[in-house]
Amino acid sequence: MNPSRPTPNTAGGPDQGPFANIPWSLVLGLGALALVRPLLSITGVTESLGWSPWLQLTVTAAVSLAWIVAVVVARAPRPLLTLVYTGLTYGVFAIVLSAVLSPFLTGELQGPVTNPFGLVSVLATNAVWGLVCGAVALAVRSALNRGRSRI
User: Fold this and answer.
1) Are 125 and 91 within 8 A, CB to CB?
2) What is the phi/psi pair of residue 81, to 5°?
3) Cβ neighbours for 38, distance < 8 A, ≥ 6 positions apart
4) HSE on the CB side for 131, CA within 13 Å?
5) I need a labelling partner for 58 at 20 to 30 A (CA). Which of 2, 64, 69, 139 fits?
6) What's the predicted TM-score (pTM) here?
7) CA atoms within 13 A on the CB side of 117
8) pLDDT digits over 25-65, tens only?
9) Are the beta carbons of 67 and 132 closer than 8 angstroms?
10) Rounded to an integer, what distance in angstroms lies between the CA atom of residue 123 and that of residue 35?
């Protein structure tokens, strides 16, 4: 056995698996960034701007673009999985935000925390959002790498 070469770990050691090489500070930061969506609604900004589905869609597109640019610029080792975890993190943050604020805003606990199907739906939807953004980030990174190799 050559001591200078690591032995492949087929059992999935610390350098493998779904949680390895994930920049968790980036995941948490990007998940928190997406809270701008519900916070615009909670604070009344969306109403004051003449609530429209286009506003929410624009904010979602801006957050998506920020996620994609962040993982490409940060050269996240696993952009797809990083953004799936980011979507899940945002889902957890949004659920907690709803659970904490709804009793103050409406007088009773409301939102996905009151319905198990709602919890699953929020997490699944945001995981898919992260998956789509992660796929775009992979494509962008691949295109950038191809462009660099031609120079």
Assistant:
1) yes
2) -65, -35
3) 94, 97, 98
4) 6
5) 139
6) 0.84
7) 0
8) 999 999 999 999 989 888 888 888 777 788 889 999 999 99
9) no
10) 14
